[in-house]
Specification:
Elements lengths: L5 E10 L2 E12 L13 E9 L9 E5 L5 H5 L3 H6 L6 E5 L13 H4 L3 H4 L4 H19 L7 E6 L1 H9 L8 E5 L15 H13 L3 H15 L3 H11 L7 H20 L16 H8 L6 H13 L20 H10 L21 H12 L7 H5 L10 E6 L21 E6 L2
Parallel strand pairs: 4-5, 4-6, 6-7, 7-8, 8-9
Antiparallel strand pairs: 1-2, 2-3, 3-5
Helix pairs in contact: 7-11, 8-12, 11-12
């Protein structure tokens, strides 16, 4: 079995009206977090999307560190990289994160998560090693230009990854991170209610009484769910695929909670299909639709159709699906349980969500029981540099002003060098 095998498909794949070569790299090592040399390497295929439309020798390599989903999803919704590529004669690369999309170390999603002996290789350290190997191979073997300057890009969790990769100056010369919550891990922020407070303000800015209706809806939905006639009415209002039972009502509330969070995150000034097919400024449109009825639950249900079925092509609301659409939720549930733990609480007195105080001890206990392994709740606080941060000396950090992740955004590190070029850039 060869250690380094590359398979290049002759067919091209259209992404955002741009042509990418599809490469399946079968060389990445699958080892434990200590990266010990092994004579018995297991190889797996990792998808990389490469665009050379603007590449010229001497130009840059723009490297997107993939996050929790199929890499095409992020390539289709990342315009900035392509906008600036011509000015830098840059090759543009999107690398899929292990255990997401088709980059499954053990062949399929189900097999890769069948037990701990296979899922244990899904860690931030292993992903960072993948990206480093990708960069080295691209520079040495694909572009044949070892002195190519590399700038990493990423958003949200991928933004954390691209920031960390920039701490290897021999590989990466700079990073542009969007909404990377590197200060939102346990024992980092005193106030865990920040994300939901920010989201509430976004809805209030769209329409003053919008958060009031959302806040009122939780108890009303719960009360309706206690009666058979109420559950039938909820099923009809929200057009659920299956009649709601008591557990189904809880699932509906959870779905709505996720919808509000995600809607604020993609509250772009232009239409998008990133997490769902949505119009420009979807929060404003949602709040406008809450005026459709004086009955609070009816109004929320009518407005929720904007998120679940904006195109009118969806037959019913499937509560077994995630509001985040095509993201890789099995892998993310695993990471969010054991490593990427984000302690977020809601408080009905300061935001539009029901009370839900994050309890780290019970959270870790439940996760360890679910995945039959040991969590590392405090590891990433140090892996991503702690509150002082690493020397992010060439790192513009952008953030949507409407997303909850801005609460955990890296502020100016106390250890920052006076000569550093470091700034937060508003997205719009």
């Amino acid at each position: 079995e060869n250690s380094w095998i590359y398979e290049r498909r002759t067919s091209a794949k259209s992404i955002c009206q741009r042509m990418f070569s599809l490469i399946k790299n079968e060389s990445w090592r699958l080892e434990d977090v200590r990266y010990r040399p092994s004579s018995n390497l297991r190889l797996f295929s990792q998808k990389i999307l490469i665009n050379l439309d603007h590449w010229k020798p001497g130009g840059a390599l723009f490297f997107y560190t993939g996050n929790e989903g199929a890499i095409e999803l992020f390539a289709q919704n990342t315009g900035f990289v392509f906008d600036i590529a011509p000015a830098f004669d840059a090759a543009v690369v999107f690398a899929e994160h292990r255990y997401y999309g088709v980059s499954m170390p053990f062949g399929s999603l189900n097999e890769s998560f069948s037990d701990w002996t296979k899922s244990r290789y899904l860690t931030v350290e292993q992903a960072m090693a993948d990206f480093a190997d990708n960069i080295i191979w691209l520079k040495e073997s694909y572009l044949n230009k070892t002195d190519t300057p590399v700038i990493t890009f990423g958003g949200s969790y991928g933004g954390c990854c691209c920031l960390d990769e920039s701490q290897v100056p021999s590989l990466v010369q700079g990073a542009i991170a969007a909404s990377a919550p590197v200060w939102m891990f346990p024992k980092m922020l005193k106030d865990s209610t920040g994300p939901y407070r920010i989201i509430t303000e976004v809805f209030r800015d769209a329409l003053a009484d919008c958060p009031v209706k959302v806040a009122q809806s939780w108890d009303l939905i719960t009360e309706m769910g206690k009666r058979k006639t109420g559950r039938k009415q909820l099923s009809s209002l929200f057009q659920t695929c299956k009649p709601l039972d008591r557990d189904g009502v809880k699932s509906l509330s959870n779905w709505l909670n996720g919808m509000y969070f995600d809607m604020a995150m993609v509250n772009y000034p232009y239409p998008t299909s990133f997490l769902a097919d949505l119009p420009a400024w979807p929060v404003k449109e949602f709040c406008r639709r809450t005026n459709a009825s004086e009955d609070v639950v009816t109004a929320i249900a009518a407005a929720a159709q904007m998120y679940s079925n904006y195109t009118g092509k969806v037959e019913c609301l499937d509560l077994d699906s995630d509001p985040a659409g095509d993201l890789g939720m099995t892998g993310w549930d695993f990471q969010a349980c054991l490593e990427m733990i984000l302690p977020i609480s809601s408080d009905k007195y300061v935001d539009m969500f029901p009370d839900d105080k994050f309890d780290l001890e019970s959270y870790v206990s439940d996760c360890e029981e679910q995945w039959n392994t040991t969590a590392r709740p405090f590891w990433l606080k140090y892996f991503f540099g702690g509150m002082d941060g690493f020397d992010y000396s060439a790192t513009p950090i952008s953030s949507s002003p409407t997303g909850g992740w801005i609460h955990g955004l890296l502020e100016e590190p106390r250890s920052l060098k006076k000569t550093s070029v470091w700034r937060i850039v508003p997205t719009f």
